[in-house]
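Lab notes, practical 5.
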Amino acid sequence: MRGLKTLKFYSNDGEIGPAILERFGTFENLYMKTFELHFRIYQLSRELPDESEYNRWMFYERLFDVLAPEKIEAYEALLSELQKIDNKLEQCEILGWEVTTDIGHDFDDLKIRKQKKEFEVFLNRNPSLFQNLREWLSKLQ
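Output from the prediction step:
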């Protein structure tokens, strides 16, 4: 659960934590928005080759070669939203792409590989940081 651990780390930082909260409201909001964007990208691309053959951005670039033309605009809009999150995070003096990629790895672990044990352990140990996440994820389809 790299994304959850990354956000927990930043939540304890006296300068970065408040800057993130100022831009996203809560760490949970940041996590859910980013996770959902990765989920929607996955929905657009599920018939394509296994993502693990590529790093995340190479995979996304490859989509343009094989994605149906009517889906390219939706895909570009999703990537644009991820980029906006990256940019907001960079205003907090951190590498935004690292945070969104870590959350993307959480998506891969939870929704594709179905590895939920570590996620449950993390949420049980950190109940106040991500109070609504478990329920929200169960509804995400």
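Observations recorded by the TA: The longest helix spans residues 69-90. The chain has one domain: 2-139.
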